[in-house]
Amino acid sequence: MSISTYLTTTLESKQDADYNKICEEHKHLIEAVPKGNGWSVQHLYNYNGFWLHPNSIKNNLLLHAYFKSQPTDIFLASFMKAGTTWLKALMFSTINRHRYSFSDHPLHHHGPHASFPYIDIETYPAISDFTHLPAPRMFATHYPRTLLPPCITSCKIVYVCRDPKDVLVSKWHFMSNHRSKDLPPLSLDEAFELFCQGISDYGPFWEHVLSYWRASLETPDKILFLKYEEMKKQPEVVLRKLAVFMGKPFTAEELEKSVVEKIVELCSFETLSNLEVNKKGVQKFGKFLEVENRHYFRKGEIGDWKNHLSEEMKQRIDGITNEKLKGSGLILGVNST
Ligand code: A3P
Q1: What is the pTM assigned to this prediction?
Q2: 201 C-beta closer than 6 A to ligand 1
Q3: d(CA 307, CA 24)
């Protein structure tokens, strides 16, 4: 055996041993932590204050063990259904605007989720591939800030949040489509109750949002805190802010040539949801998870909760939101913009 083969084999078996150790740790954790009813699977587990799918807990352990950030990395963080798909498209097309033409753009041919990796699922063994991504590398995550390894929290993070009532309704639709066939359907009433108790993937919603909001106040140069509703109302204004934050401000010439408007148009709900790839295509995450792109595009509106929640349900969620966000300076919901 050559020395290089020997070193590679030794390294690989050390990595395998580390990996197996993490799997063991994961098994013990799952047995020890509280569990609650899941939305797509039977149970979610409370890991350090947040309700996670068992695989997300394992991936979090792997992320802490293996992920190495680079100073130029940019992360997109969000609670599920707060606008991740839209932001992915906007960030990808803004960073790469000099590489691609608007008439034949990668977003015309692949779903927004193929633009950059989602580290909650794709950490191992894909982690070794991340070193080959061009700088600035971009990654997406749904983990709350408190569950991210310190090497990530020192990078730039774009966070997007949304009225929890719309998040709840959007998540209920999405999770119902992905709920295990072995389980009975989850009614909106049940989902509502669980959401209010904080039990949904990556929940409690409010603690998730606050984890990034507080950090954005402490280090505004590191966290750009966006609201879905503001993006809907003034997409060009938000996109310009996003470009500055990512270190790629639009030049006077680009503004003159309406590049901002072109990116907004390319990434709009109307454009993306009508593309063949987003009507028929499938997005693979890691080895096992596949999601049909069409499930990422439902209505794309502010206030669809009005078609699903009663006045009483609205009052209850707004009450929790006011209570949880009291004193934080953050306003979400009806008067958020
Ligand atoms: P609705 O279910 O309310 O329609 P995420 O991307 O975080 O999974 O969030 C999905 C939500 O964002 C869905 O909300 C989806 O329709 C909406 N969405 C997806 N792409 C969008 C876009 N380009 N512009 C606005 N909303 C978008």
Answers
A1: 0.94
A2: no
A3: 45
Sequence-ordered list of residues with C-beta below 8 angstroms from that of 102, at least 6 positions apart, any chain: 262, 266
Task: Compute the distance from residue 3 Cα to the ligand 1 centre, in Å.
Answer: 52
Which residue lies with its CA nearest to atom 27 of ligand 1? 300
**For 240-273, how does the pLDDT look when each residue is reduced to its tens digit (9 = 90+)?**
999 999 999 999 999 999 999 999 999 999 999 9
Out of 26, 105, 113, 142, pick the active-site residue: 142
Q: Which residues are registered as beta bridge partners of 289?
A: 285
Query: Ligand 1 centre and the CA of 295: distance in Å?
Result: 9
Task: Using the predicted structure, report yes or no on whether residue 6 has a pLDDT greater than 90.
Answer: no
What does the alpha-carbon distance between residue 221 and residue 328 come to, in Å, rounded to a whole number?
19
Do 97 and 263 form a contact (C-beta atoms < 8 A)? Answer: yes
Domain spans of the chain?
7-325
pLDDT of residue 131: 81
| pLDDT per position as a tens digit, 197-244 | 999 999 999 999 999 999 999 999 999 999 999 999 999 999 999 999
Q: How far is the CA of 159 from the centre of ligand 1 (A)?
A: 15
> Which tokens belong to 208?
């998730």
Q: Is the CB of 84 under 6 A from ligand 1?
A: yes
Q: Which CATH fold topology does 7-325 show? A: Rossmann fold (3.40.50)
At which residue do the structure tokens 């090497």 appear? 151
Examine the residue annotation and report whether 142 is marked as an active-site residue of this protein.
Answer: yes
CA-to-CA distance for 140 and 163, rounded, in angstroms?
20
Give the residue with greater pLDDT, 273 vs 121: 273
| CB 308 less than 6 A from any atom of ligand 1 | no
